[in-house]
Automatic annotation (TrEMBL):
<dbReference type="Pfam" id="PF12696">
    <property type="entry name" value="TraG-D_C"/>
</dbReference>
<protein>
    <submittedName>
        <fullName>TraM recognition domain-containing protein</fullName>
    </submittedName>
</protein>
<dbReference type="InterPro" id="IPR032689">
    <property type="entry name" value="TraG-D_C"/>
</dbReference>
<keyword id="KW-0472">Membrane</keyword>
<feature type="transmembrane region" description="Helical">
    <location>
        <begin position="14"/>
        <end position="35"/>
    </location>
</feature>
<keyword id="KW-0812">Transmembrane</keyword>
<dbReference type="InterPro" id="IPR027417">
    <property type="entry name" value="P-loop_NTPase"/>
</dbReference>
<feature type="domain" description="TraD/TraG TraM recognition site">
    <location>
        <begin position="420"/>
        <end position="538"/>
    </location>
</feature>
<keyword id="KW-1133">Transmembrane helix</keyword>
<feature type="transmembrane region" description="Helical">
    <location>
        <begin position="73"/>
        <end position="96"/>
    </location>
</feature>
<dbReference type="InterPro" id="IPR051539">
    <property type="entry name" value="T4SS-coupling_protein"/>
</dbReference>
<keyword id="KW-1003">Cell membrane</keyword>
């Protein structure tokens, strides 16, 4: 059977395309010429109305309007119609480009990423309906504010559609420094939170602390626990870490925070670490049962022969625990001394009287009680330096105590907190190392406790919780936000594979003796390659939600939102206050130079 001539086929295709373009231009131009001539004739009263003949109007306008002058015909049937057609063509091109780029034309939507319908459960209508079912207080409300429906993550890229996580989601955010984790995630979430809020951080001035302090004070009390004087604030509270240590499990949890703050996950299983943690838990239990301050534990660690903790444990029917403690005390001296020295190092921060004052009873200062906090609209700021050791252990213990109190309150309230509690665990791997946080993630969201753990990298989480722990945290998070600055090639490739592939149409042209032929084929290609993930521009983020396609988001920094000027001014005032207090503390006192002359 003879093959069709490829050259002839290509010629026909070109001819049809040219004909189509000519018709697309001629038809509207002819109609505009007739309309322009008719309007010109009526305006000048030079000719009566002409019949509808657009072709004649385009080719021979003088036949339809013989009394119009050449200038009038030129303007009415040539210049004006041509200008209008050009303007319409430009407008159509702009609209097409905006539609193709994803709606607003600001940023081109990446082919294969989630569209509006792919993440509909995170959009306004669905998230508001979900909020009604989760929060009894909103069930009969006629109108629900956006802040009461969920936590804003950003806008679907290139659109005005807001993407929110609901009040049953738990999230992890991996964002490099200066990629928007504070300005676009932590601060907006805190400002919009309808219930109590916890923030952990290693910074104060110019950060989430100063940006939200005044705004949160307007809706509830603000508590600041600052044992290492990050904000140089006057101590206005104290908290008793032994309040939850009156059981062996509670004392063990408190000791685990001191262990996690002192050594990495890979070292927590060796003999000395375990033994030191066990001694701490036994002494914490004794101090809690006798309602003694936590600083008494340091005195007992200094003198292992002191029988006071043994007597307390026995008097409160903890004979088995007392026997374990007695066995350690009376064991080989070199082993006992090694265990006790390990425990001393873990709790060494309690020797600092400035730090210890935050966790021991203080006259004329209110006590922070987690059980009361979780039913309020208060805010708790937990501040500690990176590598704070025992001081960061107290931060982690306080955050853990609040989340456990919230869980207990949710159970008493029928299963969920209403309004929900937000826990922004910024710099969690540095200042808030809760060892079993990955396990807690599996049920916190169902209790109306919404944690957002913010890390600088995936490896940072692995160092804190180990490979298995970080994998568990990642898997348990129903929302995952990935910002710019991902330099881990393995993690970037993992994200690329999670986003998946899409079909790409490929056109190939070949030339032979019989002529030129063109063929189309489909091939699979990564939607977002690892190098593209590494190069994510600032102001954008990837969002992974359980059971949905990955979405690209435009972040919404707080300083571009309504009311930013007022918040910025308040933040500046708070930052200047920190600076002034720091200078005042550093200034030499008269006593440093002896009595005045």
């Amino acid at each position: 059977m003879p093959q069709p001539n490829s050259s002839s086929t290509d010629g026909y295709d070109i001819a049809f395309r040219v004909l189509g373009i000519a018709i697309a231009i001629a038809v509207p131009l002819a109609n505009l010429a007739w309309l322009g001539g008719t309007i010109t004739a009526k305006v000048t009263d030079a000719d009566p109305g002409a019949p509808y003949q657009p072709v004649a109007a385009l080719l021979h306008p003088e036949q339809l309007w013989p009394h119009l002058g050449e200038t009038s015909l030129l303007i009415g049937t040539r210049i004006v119609p041509g200008t209008l057609l050009l303007a319409l063509a430009v407008a159509a091109a702009v609209l097409y480009k905006r539609h193709k780029d994803g709606g607003s034309g600001r940023k081109k939507r990446i082919e294969g990423m989630a569209k509006h319908k792919d993440i509909e459960p995170l959009m306004s209508k669905a998230i508001t309906a979900k909020a009604r079912s989760l929060r009894p207080s909103l069930k009969n409300a006629k109108h629900i504010d956006a802040a009461d429906s969920g936590i804003l993550l950003g806008n679907l890229q290139g659109t005005k559609h807001e993407v929110r996580m609901g009040f049953e989601d738990v999230a992890v955010a991996i964002m490099a420094p200066r990629s928007g984790k504070t300005t676009s995630l932590a601060i907006p979430s805190i400002l919009a939170a309808p219930g109590p809020v916890i923030l952990t951080s290693n910074k104060a001035a110019g950060d989430a602390y100063t940006a939200t302090l005044d705004a949160r004070a307007a809706i509830g009390r603000t508590w600041s626990m600052d044992p290492q004087q990050i904000a140089h604030a006057e101590r206005a509270m104290w908290w008793n870490p032994l309040a939850d240590a009156k059981t062996l499990d509670g004392a063990g949890r408190l000791a685990s925070h001191f262990l996690a703050a002192s050594v990495d996950a890979s070292q927590q299983g060796d003999f000395w670490s375990k033994a030191g943690s066990n001694i701490l838990s036994q002494l914490f239990l004794a101090a809690a049962l006798a309602e003694r301050p936590i600083t008494d534990v340091m005195a007992w660690l200094a003198f292992p022969a002191d029988r006071t903790p043994l007597d307390i444990l026995r008097d409160h029917n903890f004979a088995a625990v007392a026997a374990q403690l007695k066995g350690t005390v009376e064991g080989p001296p070199e082993t006992r001394d090694g265990i006790y020295e390990t425990a001393r190092q873990y709790a060494a921060a309690l020797l600092n009287t400035e730090i210890a004052a935050w966790v021991t009873p203080q006259k004329n200062l209110p006590e922070f009680t987690p059980s009361t906090f979780v039913t309020s609209t208060d805010t708790l700021y937990l501040l500690s330096k990176d590598g704070g050791g025992g001081a960061s252990a107290l931060i982690a213990a306080c955050a853990d105590s609040v989340m456990r109190a919230a869980t207990a309150q949710a159970e008493r309230a029928g299963g969920r907190l209403d309004p929900p509690m937000l826990a922004i665990l910024d710099e969690a791997a540095n200042v808030c190392k809760i060892s079993d946080l990955p396990d807690l993630y599996s049920h916190l969201g169902s209790r109306g406790i919404i944690p957002i753990t913010i890390l600088q990298s995936y490896r940072q989480g692995q160092k804190c919780w180990g490979d298995a722990g970080m994998d568990a945290l990642w898997s348990a998070s129903t929302i995952k936000v990935i910002g710019s600055g991902i330099d881990d090639t393995d993690f970037a490739d993992k994200l690329s594979r999670l986003i998946g592939d899409h079909d790409v149409e490929t056109t190939s042209t070949s030339t032979s003796e019989s002529g030129k032929s063109t063929s189309l084929s489909m091939r699979q290609e990564r939607i977002l390659a690892a190098d593209a993930i590494r190069a994510l521009p600032k102001g954008t983020a990837l969002a992974f939600a359980t059971g949905m396609r990955a979405a690209m988001l435009d972040l919404r920094p707080w300083y571009l939102e309504p009311g930013a000027d007022e918040l910025s001014a308040a933040s500046d005032r708070a930052s200047k206050g920190i600076t002034a207090r720091a200078i005042a503390k550093a200034a030499p006192k008269q006593s440093d130079f002896g009595p005045a002359a």
